[in-house]
């Protein structure tokens, strides 16, 4: 399957975090349609906001530095050694 190299690091929604009422999530997945679908699923939830999306390790690291997040959903296929990447 062919893939495109579109930049997926975007700020989906940067909520006004009042008293920690939102769970902020970054979604990192090599298949570009999955982060979008995941963001749509989370949009149905009142207390979850997707603050960043990425499809490469470099984009994921950049998003983790740029956006404040409580959770990083990380596809292991983004790197040959996911444990080392997450430790970064």
Describe the structure in your own words.
This protein has 88 residues and is of the alpha/beta class. Helix content is 31%, strand content 19%. The protein has three helices and three strands. Strands 2-1-3 form a three-stranded parallel sheet. Strand 1, helix 1 and strand 2 form a beta-alpha-beta unit. The radius of gyration is 13 Å and the shape is globular. The N and C termini lie far apart (30 Å). The N terminus is likely disordered.
Q: Mind sketching the topology for me?
A:
Layout (H helix, E strand, L loop, with lengths): L22 E6 L4 H11 L4 E7 L2 H10 L4 E4 L7 H6 L1
Parallel strand pairs: 1-2, 1-3
Summarize the structure.
With 88 residues, the protein is of the alpha/beta class. It has 3 helices and 3 strands, in the order βαβαβα.
Cross-sheet strand order for the largest sheet: 2-1-3
> Over the alpha carbons, how many angstroms does the gyration radius reach?
13 Å
DSSP E strands, number: 3
Unreliable parts: 1-18
- Overall outline: globular
Order of helices and strands: EHEHEH
Estimate the strand proportion: 15-25%
Distance between the termini: 30 Å
How is the biggest beta sheet arranged?
3 strands, parallel
Number of helices: 3
Q: What is the arithmetic mean of pLDDT?
A: 75
Report helical residue fraction.
25-40%
Class from secondary-structure proportions: alpha/beta
Features of this protein?
88 residues, alpha/beta, three-stranded parallel β-sheet, 3 helices, 31% helix
């Amino acid at each position: 399957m062919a893939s495109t190299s579109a930049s997926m690091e975007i700020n989906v929604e940067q909520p006004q975090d009042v008293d920690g009422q939102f769970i902020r999530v970054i979604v990192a997945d090599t298949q570009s349609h999955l982060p979008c679908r995941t963001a749509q699923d989370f949009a149905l939830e009142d207390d979850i906001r997707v603050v960043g999306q990425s499809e490469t390790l470099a984009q994921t690291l950049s998003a983790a530095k740029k956006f404040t997040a409580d959770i990083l959903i990380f596809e292991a296929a983004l790197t040959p050694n996911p444990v080392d990447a997450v430790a970064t």
